[in-house]
Structures are given as structure tokens and as C-alpha cells.
Amino acid sequence: MVILNFIKILKSYIRLLLCKVVLGKKLKLRNFFYTYIDSFVNIEINKNGCIFMGKNVRIRKMCNLKCTSGIIRIGNNVFFNNFVSLNCREHIEVGDDCLFGENVKIYDHDHTFRQGEKTSMLPIVSQRIIIGNNVWIGANVVILKGVSIGDNAVIGAGSLINKDVGASTIIYNKKDNIIKSI
């Protein structure tokens, strides 16, 4: 068992080294030896993007961290379960001691919508996302641009978060809400 854990950790260090070699100064790790990246994790940093990771960040399989031009800042003791995706054009900040369930999607940008115009030609609008300390985000949650989530908040599985969430708050979404017809 000890040998299997050692091999698993060694593979993670090799993946981190490869990321550092490929991404260079764009990927900043606070403490290399306490960061764990599982297999098939995609870290993509383009243009002027940068990703900062704190101590003891654990990223499970098939996660995607994409930073097109902004900054992703991840605090200490953060856990991303399988299939978590962070897509950044401006700024995504995750505080310390946060847990992310499977298949969480975070986007700090979207397209505007105007009737009669081609969707592919519409401009992209970005706003920063701030996730406080000790936040627990359940599986299949989607967090959209401009959201701030306070410390000690819990986001229930399957929720769509497009407004600020206060500190020490539990949020869940009822699935059959009709917002407006278009």
C-alpha cells in the first residue's frame, strides 16, 4: 500500500514538473511537494494568463483549468473532484479550505445576447468571481460571471449561481423555476 501511494505521488510530481516546464512562469506553485494533480488534468494558460496555486491543492481526474487572459488564484487546502472546470478570461479567486464536488463549472465570462444578431459575433463580457474561505460546492454546480460567494457557504448539488451568495449561507436551486419566457 505504501509503495502504491509513493508511485501515485511520484506520478503527480512528474505531471507538475511537465506543467512547470511547458507553462513556465505562468504557473506559480506555492509549495510543489504538497500539490497533487491526478491523471488527465488539463491546464491551459494563453496570452497574459497566470495560475497561482497555494499549498496542498488536490486536483482529481479530468479537471480543466483554462486561463485565456486573466488570473486564476487558488488558495491553500483546496480540493477539486473529478471533472471540475475553471474557465477564466479576467479573474477567478478560490479561498482556502474549499471543496468542489464532481462536474462543477465556473465561468467568469459569457456572451451578450441581442435579438436579430448572430450569436457567434456577439462580444464576450467578463466579470471576476470570488469564492471565499471554507466553501463547499456540491456536484454539478455552475457558477457564472460576477459572483461573489462568502466564507463558510454551502452550495447544493445542481445549483446555478448567478448572484452573490452571503457568508455562512446554504443555497440550493429548485429545478422547475421559469425565469422568463423569450
From TrEMBL:
InterPro entries, A to Z: Hexapep, Hexapep_transf_CS, Hexapeptide_acetyltransf, Trimer_LpxA-like_sf
Keyword Methyltransferase among UniProt keywords: no
Record GO terms (molecular function): transferase activity
Matching Pfam families: Hexapep
UniProt KW keywords: Repeat, Transferase
The keyword rRNA processing is assigned to this record: no
Entry protein name: Acetyltransferase (Isoleucine patch superfamily)-like protein
